[in-house]
Amino acid sequence: MDKNEKMTDSEFPTPNSGKSIEDWLGQPIPRGDVSNVFLPVSESYAGIALKIPLQIQRGEKDGPVVFVTAALHGDELNGVGAIRELLLDETFKLKSGSLVLVPILNLLAFDRHSRYMPDRRDLNRCFPGSPGGSLASRVADNIFTELVGRCDYGIDLHTAAVRRTNYPNVRADMKDPKVAELAKTFGAEVIVDYAGAAGTLRREACLAGCPTIVLEGGEVWKVEPAIVETAVRGIKNVLRHLDMIDGDIEVPETQMIVNKTQWVRADHGGFLQYHARPGQVVEKDQPLATNSDLLGRENRLMVAPFDGVVIGMTTIPAVGPGQPVFHVGKLPKNTDADEVHESRQETESLEQRTVEDLSSNVLVIKHDDQRDMGRS
């Protein structure tokens, strides 16, 4: 796909439910305007309506409707930071189409600094939801009906789970041509080809006719500058591709479409010394971490299962048997690791900055430089 290629108006799919962006729950949303809308999704114990704040930006001309959501898991805040960058940017303006920005999708979980709903359900396993189901299922139904039902495309922003960090990567069903086009245009260096688990927002949105991708990047409870910049760049890339804003699409020189991933798990309890960092390209059997006892007498080397890229890793060096330590994506055929490394060395490379920033909170040393800790 040529990075400057754009869709024609005839290629824009129509909203999948027939709901219009021009009127939201009785509130007119005029062209060329910016409107704040509050979407009721549930009620408090006092019977007071719980409403999700969102902003709708409309261009002067017709075009696709795109949603961007964050904090579907209430503790994942990097996406919130990215959406706020767009909300507070006075120079950001659509020329066509409509953009729905939702900084906090799961307000119930966000208020508790938690991944989960108050009923302990994962909202991102409850879509498309049911109006007569559990609390999470009812919230999912309202979101799916009122938000996804009005949109043609979607971008859902996530981070790694608690005590882990992710190198920014797009998750997308690359067998769907429209989703694949969206994923490539977003411009992440790593794309994981996976349709998503049943009940996830992106999988169910795609099945309903709204091509949707996920960005995974960084940690919970943080707003990390390089991750925010990655997300904002990707959102703008998609909007430029859809001819909704002006500007050039910015993508890395190398994009890796990963079809296989594997978690490298600890066989024993111990304390970790990391030898690899998020985003690093590794060779098969390359040392990833040394797992030793508390006196450093037993060194158990954890190695890469294949030539790959480190998608994610734990940030807690204390580990128990079976716990995941490194998430490695298998390199696509004909991917040159040296070329990936060289492309990151360019001046002001976002990919290189991201690698460096994500490894700043863990101690990473080369295995060859590690002193003899008394191997037994």
Automatic annotation (TrEMBL):
CDD domains: M14_ASTE_ASPA-like (cd06251)
Gene Ontology terms for molecular function: hydrolase activity, acting on carbon-nitrogen (but not peptide) bonds, in linear amides; hydrolase activity, acting on ester bonds; metal ion binding
Domain Succinylglutamate desuccinylase/Aspartoacylase catalytic: 63-242
UniProt xrefs under Pfam families: AstE_AspA_cat
Taxonomic superkingdom: Bacteria
UniProt entry tagged with the keyword Hydrolase: yes
Protein's UniProt keywords contain Hydrolase: yes
Required cofactor names: Zn(2+)
Keywords assigned by UniProt, alphabetized: Hydrolase, Metal-binding, Zinc
Compositional bias per record (Basic and acidic residues), positions renumbered to this chain: 333-355
Region (Disordered): 1-22, 330-355
SUPFAM superfamilies registered for this protein in UniProt: Zn-dependent exopeptidases
Record protein name field: Succinylglutamate desuccinylase / Aspartoacylase family protein
